[in-house]
Amino acid sequence: MKKYEQIADEIRRQIISNFYKKGDILPDQQTLAHDFNVSKITIKNALDNLANEGFVLKTSGFGTVVIGPSTLITDKDAPATNFEGLTKQEGANRVSSKVIKFDLEFPDDKVKKNLNLHGEEPVYHIIRLRLLDKEPFIIENTYMPVNLVPGLTLSVLESSIYTFIRDSLHLKFAGIARNIQAKQADGLDISYLNVTEHTPILEVEQIVWLVNGTPIEYSTSRNASNKRAYYLFETN
User: Fold this and answer.
1) What span, in angstroms and rounded, lies between the C-alpha atoms of 156 and 148?
2) What are phi and psi of 201, to 5 degrees?
3) Tens-level pLDDT at each residue, the chain (236 residues)
4) How far apart are alpha carbons 31 and 52 in whole angstroms?
5) In the chain, what are the domains?
6) In Å, what is the CA distance from 224 to each residue of 177, 197, 228, 231?
7) Core-most of 74, 161, 191, 205, by most CB within 10 Å?
8) Is the dihedral of CA 83, 79, 180, 187 positive or negative?
9) What is the 3-state secondary structure (H, E, C) of the chain?
């Protein structure tokens, strides 16, 4: 965990425990930097995290005001703009994976367009069941260009692809586009998510880009709508 994430965790804990109450103004960034013995940029990153989660409101000329935790957000919800990966969000001790499919393919036109591929460039086609606390949680259907993710193995798929990309390949994610829709349950959902054909399904279709603007992932993830939702917190 990075230093700013540790600091965000500590301030979040202080807010949840009512050490800082709703309406309180947090100490300024210089004071927090001194208290935590870090740089102001580290504090800024920590406060940005908390703002994105709806815990604080950063206002120019007024300070950082405590407004959360939001009554609209539950522990089942995830930030709509977050692309850290499920393992990072929920914790490696809670998340496990069952690999349903792991193949090399030449993609169809839709996948080629979303990954900006030309000619006959192979992709990994990965389908995984993600389990949370050993219970079926999400089915991910993922395509990644082989040339961007060399060395992908079954053992990586059974843990965290994003951790492998960040820590082993030293690639940095920079942007994401998501389309979130309600869907009917399909055969894979029924087989692996313990749902029926009448269960509402939430589908997230996404493209993830690296810092150089290259798409590294096109995927869809599906879960029962009562298992997970997504929230967006914006400020003016």
Assistant:
1) 15
2) -115, 140
3) 789 999 999 999 999 999 999 999 999 999 999 999 999 999 999 998 898 888 999 887 788 999 988 777 776 777 776 767 787 777 778 889 999 999 999 999 999 999 999 888 999 999 999 999 999 999 999 999 999 999 999 999 998 899 999 999 999 999 999 999 999 999 999 999 999 999 999 999 999 999 999 999 999 999 999 998 887 777 66
4) 22
5) 3-66 (1.10.10.10), 77-231 (3.40.1410.10)
6) 21, 11, 7, 16
7) 161
8) positive
9) CCHHHHHHHHHHHHHHCCCCCCCCECCCHHHHHHHHCCCHHHHHHHHHHHHHCCCEEEECCCEEEECCCCCCCCCCEEECCCCCCHHHHHCCCCEEEEEEEEEEECCCHHHHHHCCCCCCCCEEEEEEEEEECCEEEEEEEEEEECCCCCCCCHHHHCCCHHHHHHHHCCCCEEEEEEEEEEEECCHHHHHHCCCCCCCEEEEEEEEEEECCCCEEEEEEEEEECCCCEEECCCCC
The tokens for 85 are 């990966």
In single-letter form, the type of residue at position 229 comes to A
